[in-house]
Automatic annotation (TrEMBL):
InterPro entries noted in UniProt: F-box-like_dom_sf (IPR036047), F-box_dom (IPR001810), LRR_dom_sf (IPR032675)
GO biological process entries: positive regulation of protein ubiquitination
Pfam families named in the record: F-box-like
Residue ranges annotated for the F-box domain, each copy included: 9-55
Organism: Aquila chrysaetos chrysaetos
Name recorded for this polypeptide: F-box protein 39
Signal peptide: none
Length: 412
């Protein structure tokens, strides 16, 4: 007898669309394309816009065959599904010669041109560590890339909400051109987050630049701004009043090679803090450790939430950390929540001073210490934590190499 009944279907055939899209979400491009060949329903899932909202594209300086195929695939899918893209991250891995930057510039020109024509959803763009001041960037290639990027930012300016160009290393004029492109169409920009840390090359005194002040005056809805201290001035703090209703976070990096001797009045910080009541400021210091240098920057009027002091293994027998711990940082006892100390303090003991600072900071939640401290200090700190004399929730100690260095010092 002939059986005319239909073959029993797998339970996968009845999987709801939302679940199927979730499964596709965890597949890479290659597996997605293979899964799309299973049936019509799965093929339709492949074209779901929710799968193509985020994309990271990595350009490898010395690519393997797998890396080359990965890049080609990523570029193909961005062009095919680019209209759905909302978050784009471009990464450069070990660029090493002019041939690489030339190819990167040409590829990015085509990619940005395509997205500029088909995409109206992009809200986030990240291209970190371009390092355009390196010799691997020929002047013509560099100028063309900046021109293409500025054109793209102009097209996306009405919708873009987040821009990260950390480590771009452009000239002051080029940097201001890129910033101005975000407000070209309306003379205002409503980007909420910008990262321009290490954005400028050659460590210029950006704080005195009229071009920079004019570019920053166009931003009206900043929530988070990351930049170097050589950009900070009374004029910039006044300009940030434009975003006072939304401004929540300033991340400020201060490197020893950046100009940081400018005078910024405490009244300027106080006025900004009054107009932007949600404002928190995070400072990241690299090799700026002397008390007199820090005291010019860390004014009591600043609503400081986090301070990171890194000596980068720098050691100076004439330098002492004690005045900073006992006189400067205690001024933030009511606001400081996070403290990171990476110090080569082999010439002075700081156990008592650091413990007293921790106990005085009533809102301190996070402590990271990479320094020469005794075991007794850790025991005392944990005992005070157990007795609820401080509210620390996270304590990170020195890595192994610091412990080995200290052991060597003690043996000598």
């Amino acid at each position: 007898m002939e059986d005319n009944s239909e073959p029993e279907q797998s339970s996968w055939a009845h999987l709801p669309d939302v679940c199927l899209r979730h499964v596709f979400h965890w597949l890479d491009d290659r597996d997605r394309s293979r899964a799309a060949l299973v049936c019509k329903k799965w093929s339709c899932a492949m074209y779901s816009g929710s799968l193509w909202r985020r994309r990271t594209i990595t350009f490898y300086g010395r690519p393997s065959r797998a890396h080359t195929l990965e890049l080609q695939s990523a570029l193909w899918y961005v062009k095919k599904f680019g209209k759905y893209l909302e978050h784009l991250e471009i990464k450069l891995s070990n660029p090493y010669n002019t041939a690489f930057t030339q190819k990167f510039q040409v590829t990015m020109k085509g990619l940005l041109s395509h997205l500029g024509k088909c995409n109206s959803r992009l809200v986030s763009l990240s291209i970190k560590y371009l390092e355009l001041d390196r010799l691997i960037w020929k002047n013509a290639v560099r100028a063309q890339f900046i021109k293409n990027l500025a054109t793209f930012l102009k097209r996306m300016s009405k919708q873009l909400d987040y821009l990260n160009l950390k480590g771009a290393r452009v000239t002051l004029e080029e940097g201001c051109e890129l910033l101005n492109s975000l407000s070209c169409l309306t003379n205002k920009s409503f980007v909420s987050e910008i990262n321009i840390e290490d954005f400028f090359s050659l460590h210029p005194p950006v704080y005195s630049s009229t071009l920079f002040h004019q570019a920053m005056s166009k931003f009206r809805s900043l929530v988070i701004l990351s930049l170097n201290y050589n950009c900070i001035s009374d004029e910039l703090l006044d300009i940030l009043w434009n975003s006072a209703h939304s401004l929540c976070t300033l991340n400020i990096k201060c490197h020893v090679h950046d100009p940081h001797g400018q005078v910024v009045w405490g009244m300027s910080w106080a006025n900004l803090a009054k107009r932007a009541p949600k404002l928190n400021v995070n400072f990241f210091f690299e090799r700026i450790m002397k008390h007199d240098h820090l005291a010019r920057i860390l004014l009591v009027e600043i609503p400081v939430r986090s301070i990171s002091l890194r000596s980068c293994y720098f050691s100076d027998p004439d330098w002492t950390m004690r005045p900073t711990l006992t006189n400067l940082l205690p001024a933030y006892w009511h606001v400081l929540q996070k403290l990171t100390l990476e110090l080569n303090n082999d010439h002075e003991l700081l156990d008592d001073e650091l413990l007293q600072l921790i106990l005085s900071c009533k809102r301190l939640l996070f402590l990271k210490v990479w320094a020469f401290l005794s075991v007794t200090f850790i025991e005392r700190l944990l005992q005070n934590r157990a007795e609820r004399k401080c509210i620390l929730t996270t304590i990170k100690e020195a890595p192994k190499e610091w412990e080995n260095m200290r052991r060597d010092e003690m043996c000598q």
